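re: that chain from earlier
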Amino acid sequence: MASSMKFLFVLGLVLLIGAVVDGAGECGKSSPDNEAMKLAPCVGAAQDANAAVPGGCCAQIKRFSQNPKCLCAVLLSDTAKASGVQPETALTIPKRCNFANRPIGYKCGPYTLP
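^ sequence. v structure.
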């Protein structure tokens, strides 16, 4: 519960001080930090590789799996880091959701999608 509250606080803070991207970036016209806010159901699974991945998380991650650049940018964003997301754990979520069409082997910064 404390993790969820921390995440929501960070998300609110990002909304207040974050800037909206004018051009098209990794995630189109939305910034990776704004997109990261949609992954609130994933916080526990992104911090613990043994935690169950909620269906709501899988639904959001599925959207990003179609765009690996955006998925990486979101999972490595300042918002994700501030909420305690561990990138190496978060990057296992598409596999843990059993997505057959996940971007296996995609390089995501220093990490590789399993």
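Helices lie at 2-17, 32-36, 43-47, 55-65, 68-75, 78-82, 87-90, 93-96.
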